[in-house]
Amino acid sequence: MGEEVQTEALIKEKARALFFKKGFLDATTQEIADEAGVNRALIHYYFRSREHMLEMLLDETLLEKKERVRNILTSSLPFRMKIARFIDTLVDYGLTYPYLDNFIISEMARRPDKVKLFCSQDKIKSSDLIREQLEEEIAGGKIAPISPENFMVNLSALCNYPLLAKVVLQTIHGMTDVAYRKFLVERKQVIYRTIFNEEMPELTAINEFQKTTRKN
Amino acid sequence: MGEEVQTEALIKEKARALFFKKGFLDATTQEIADEAGVNRALIHYYFRSREHMLEMLLDETLLEKKERVRNILTSSLPFRMKIARFIDTLVDYGLTYPYLDNFIISEMARRPDKVKLFCSQDKIKSSDLIREQLEEEIAGGKIAPISPENFMVNLSALCNYPLLAKVVLQTIHGMTDVAYRKFLVERKQVIYRTIFNEEMPELTAINEFQKTTRKN
DNA sequence: TTTGCGTTTAACAATTTTGTTAAACAAAAA
DNA sequence: TTTTTGTTTAACAAAATTGTTAAACGCAAA
Hints:
The structure is a homodimer.
Chain A: H1 4-21, H2 29-36, H3 40-47, H4 50-73, H5 79-96, H6 100-110, H7 112-120, H8 126-139, H9 148-164, H10 166-172, H11 177-196, H12 203-215
Helix pairs in contact in A: 1-2, 2-3, 4-5, 5-9, 5-11, 6-7, 8-9, 9-11
Chain A binds a DNA duplex through residues 1-4, 7, 28-30, 38-42, 44-45, 48-50.
């Protein structure tokens, strides 16, 4: 017996890195095989076809990301802490896979039929998950009136756009990869301030809060 | 003699539509030819190669967009009117070419070498064009402190993201193309409110202002 | 040892896509 | 009319890419 699980996992990992980390949106099966140091036919042995493999990768990765977001938005945290967490998670996720959204978007444009399949999986829109809390904030005069849809689009835009436009922004401002990472991390607070016009609470404080309320 | 100019322009126009409007990011030369109703070899006759054609299209379109943005940011308008114009223009441009940024981003990821060429064309960063006015606003306490870079990234993100994520957002919220256009147009005001926490001035008012000041 | 099973490979076939070329064509100039 | 110039086409060649298959390989059980 060879090393089935390891090789299959290795190929997946390398393909993910190629697509989502390095941004080779249209890497060929040969390039994936090279990256994993295996024969090209193995791609077909494990994943049947290139198409099939892509679907698998997208499915898995999207599901994981959605899970994370969902967990945050359905948590019992107060609104502003929830959003702070959301920003933190989304930006960090982007730092791990700088080209993920890029890839998804290109792929979706390529296969509009598949989009419905992917999107229909989540029954509840994330905008619905914050509707009530957002309405409270607005009613309390703590934030200017805005629809949940626009609020979520704003939030996603501010978090995701700098990653989508990574190459362009990085070149314009002459930033190295390290400098760009720093820029993104510091932007977390900028985003929070843009949305709420106040300083973002420390994440450690949020964690503490969560521990305390869980005890009670 | 045939009809050189018309055919060449036709091919360009159809290619632009295919890439930037319909979102066929990797349309083949055959598909472009079909769209324009001409023989595939004509693409090579006029544009030498597919690569060369893409470079040409990107070059032209990017230049035009940059020109528009530059004109707004270097105008003599007061800061907030300037930004209102910026938002209006960027969103409208996006409505004309919903997949333009998408295409640029994919293409840039594909050819990181070309990026420098495109970006180096504009000697002045747009963030530098608003630096002084932004500092005034901040000094006057009219807006929370923020770097020009982050301000511009925020602005671009809020304007461009909904177009980049068009397919996804449209599917999630079950919107037709018409409904999505409406959503985007209405978002202009949402974006302005998100940035400045006040209502956006009417564009007609801005035009009036510009006329008046020009007279003096 | 040899048999069996899952894994891996090399070689092949089919398809798609790009780029080239020579010839047909249309209209203006000689 | 004939020539010339520029435009358009069809047919061909070359390259890249995907998917298939049969054989080799390695390890564990018989």
